Amino acid sequence: MEEKNFQDETSTKNTDFGINADENAAGTTHLNNVLEEETEVDKLTNELQEQKDKYIRLFAEFDNYRRRTAKESIELRQTAGKEIIVSLLDILDDSERAEKQLEKSGDVQQFAEGALLVFNKFKKTLESKGLKPMDSINTDFDVEKHEAITEVPVQDKSKKGKVIDEIQKGYYLNNKIIRFAKAVVGK
Fold it and tell me: Which positions ≥6 away from 182 have C-beta within 8 Å?
């Protein structure tokens, strides 16, 4: 009985100190558990570091993208009208030639013909770039296309609610309204 009491006392003492008193268990079991925990912590720390690196790289990439698109946008705005301006330079040259001819000859009829040619060339150039005039006269007044400047009484009942005159012509650019027609509407 004394031996049994002695073993009970030692086992309680050993458990109080956290010592492995089991004879069948290897002495390194507790050490192996600690090593496994440390490697798991290291593994999680490494994964966290990788995710931080990915985040920082992604953020830097986005910042570079934002700067690049801002720069491209500025460049696009600066050169957006270049094609139109280049096509209008021919018309400017023709206008200057017409002005020189007028100074030399003084023939008003010849100047009028030249001005008409320049005007037609100007219209054709703008039409080739997608500009199309809006046909408004004698059409129903449409709030989506027209701005009513004034309403005038009309005797013909068929002209009521229709555009009877244009103060300023409306235009489409590639089938999108870029300027509304300023119209006089019959009432």
Answer: 146, 147, 149, 166, 167, 168, 170
List CB contacts of 181: < 8 A, sequence separation 6 or more. Answer: 134, 136, 145, 146, 147, 163, 166, 168, 169, 170
Question: Per-residue pLDDT tens for 64-116?
Answer: 999 999 999 988 887 777 778 788 888 888 888 877 877 777 677 877 888 88
pTM: 0.53
Domains of the chain from N-terminus onward: 132-187 (2.30.22.10)
Residue 143 φ/ψ, nearest 5 degrees? -60, -25
Count each helix (H run) and each strand (E run) in the chain, helices first: 4, 6
Nearest to 128, CA basis, from 139, 120, 140: 120
Confidence of residue 161 (pLDDT cuts 50, 70, 90): confident
**Taking the C-alpha atoms of 127, 128, 130 and 135 in order, what is their torsion angle to the nearest 10 degrees?**
20
Distance of alpha carbon 50 from alpha carbon 74, whole angstroms: 36
Residue identified by tokens 């703008």 is: 126
State residue 139 phi and psi, 5-degree precision.
-110, 160
Distance CA 22, CA 29 (A): 11
